[in-house]
Protein 1
Amino acid sequence: MMAKLALIGGTGVYDPDLLDSVTEETVSTPYGTVDISLGTLRGVEVVFMSRHGRGHTIPPHRINYRGNIWALKELGVTKVLSTAAVGSLNEAMQPGHFVALDQFIDFTKGRPLTFYDGEDGVVVHTDFTEPYCTSMRKVIQEAAAELDVKLHPRGCYLCTEGPRFETPAEINAFRLLGADVVGMTNVPEVVLAREAGLCYAAVATVTNLAAGISPAPITHTEVDEVMGRSFKRLGSLLMAVLGKLDPESSCSCTTPAREQEV
Ligand code: HPA
């Protein structure tokens, strides 16, 4: 099977139109079926997946993260580029800015978060010193520089359970913990990708200042509007990054450091 790239579109990125010769497919996984689009970009096969479903119908805590990552692995994907809409806790990161995530803090509460659930008696602890693929992050930075797109080269993403937005007290606490941006979906997606041996990187788009920093209440409409306004720049950045990635090149993400107990 030909190695492939994948693009997981978050809020505001629903359409595989960026790719050529797109076909729709349904993939069976142990976690249920997953709908994807398959297309090409300059001769390289790219799988497009809409994280919230095509019409944004799946809330963050109900996304089939394990099915999604399993499906990508099954299709021969080796590298996953994803997008995320985020609120900002860092005054340097303003609405419309892009951030190449480099760390996360997990504040989710009730999601299946691993492929290693222990049913087979195997306990696996995967290293997460570098949660996001460092070589993909370099490519994202290069592409942004070439396109003259403003991108923060690193940022710590705090993942909440959602689907509600945060309280100002939570945002204050998260800032003290070192978070730069807040969202609801990167965990467990990034975790499962590493467990599956896939390279994974995320470009976050700041859509709003976080609760209590923003002068107004936060709405999904505002998030959608800023994503809409940023889409042209984001789309060209994503295409440039995908165009620079070699699905065949090897990386330490494919053999993550693990400690196993049987
Ligand atoms: N909080 C959580 N998730 C988000 C936000 C936010 O402020 N903005 C976009 N996604």
Protein 2
Amino acid sequence: MCSVVFLDINGCHYKFPVVYGTFYEKAINISQLRENTGIMTFDPGLKNTGIAKSSISFIDGEKGELLYRGYPIEQIINKCSFIETSYLILNGELPNTAQLKCFSEKIKKFNHINKEIYQILDKVPDNYHPMGVLSFLTYVLTSFTNFIQEKDEDMYLHLLAKLPILASLIYRKKVGLPPSYADKNMDYTSNLLKMFFSKSNKSYQHNPIITDTLDKLLILHADHEQNCSTTTVRLLGSAHSGLFSSISAGISALWGKLHGGANQAVIEMLENIVISGGNIKKWIEKAKNKKDPFRLMGFGHRIYKNFDPRAKIAKKIAENLIQELRIVDPILELAKNLEEKALQDPYFVEKKLYPNIDFYSGIIYQAIGIPKDMFTVMFSLGRLPGWMAHWKEIKLNRDPIGRPRQIYIGYKKRNIIHK
Ligand code: SDX
């Protein structure tokens, strides 16, 4: 394994150290590049740039593998709950029985919110998008939790407890239901569903199939290396912004249609295909047409150049749920058809465009009864442990504040004449 690389720049010979990861992925450490050579790198979208050393998750894009703290997602999804996975991602190890009990009990201790939040939500105009309100209310929580010091582990548990409450209130306001409160006798995901769907005039009927499905979907979203929203959270953490405001920014980043907002866009795309007569070939050709801004939503990924392992699991979860609930869902059949046709098309094969997590997740949310504009809110609930673990890690690693450079292409220096 080479430990240095050499660069010849303007006839000068420069040596740079090589950094190796656990799976021997390697990077040239260019932290002294500009100082030593006067030049810098240029990498729009950071496609080739490692911005941190991290031990939380690992993606092998070529093999289509995802590990959380070293454990393959396929094992976690079958052996762990979302709360166990959150513990693992935040603390680096799976909890033993006592640790899990303490973690879960502490989260329950925090599962209430200040009355002012209800009053603020009342004032929000009805035409809001849930992601905007979730980001805003997450920031507002800061005002009620200023007793928490940065080193206080409880702040992570606070957010794990409070984000589902905010999500349920945002949903219930949208559908005209009064707030529903957490039930301390329920586990995390059962509680989440109860807070969403309970009706004041009748007792809430818990459906274990739906709870297990949602728990698995939350696990699939829990972390994913330096994706756009996680890098956003890290950047704020590097400036020593607070945890809640950093997560609030991560929620806003995830909202983007090319990122977490894709799950809503996938269902809208599939519905449009149905409305326009179901001609899959026409839509695939549209996605390939460079003059057309349309893309096949839920397809392609910056890192996966093979199947997104999460999409494979989500597809199976969707099929099981639809079967168990005895739902006839033309959208699922259309999605499977579209996947099959796209993966036979040379354009998608050559560009290695496979379904990603967002291609099937919306179908599952819809079958559970969650409306489209809440899909990315559910993604946020799943990604929360990952965002918080990265915020925590950047502090532990004492990373410097993130401040990239640029290539300036504006005006040369000039004087104001006409004033
Ligand atoms: C998520 O980073 C993460 O890990 C994100 C995520 C997570 O867990 O945090 O996995 C969650 O955001 C998943 C992605 C959800 N987004 C979508 O499904 C939107 C549709 N997909 C794309 O817009 C796109 O594939 C991205 C944004 C996901 C990735 O874009 P890249 O890596 O910047 O790739 P690119 O845009 O440079 O595309 C490379 C080529 C281009 O063609 P050429 O210019 O080379 O001819 O592939 C084409 C693109 O036009 N292409 C597509 C396409 N995706 C890429 N063509 C048609 N349909 C698509 N979906």
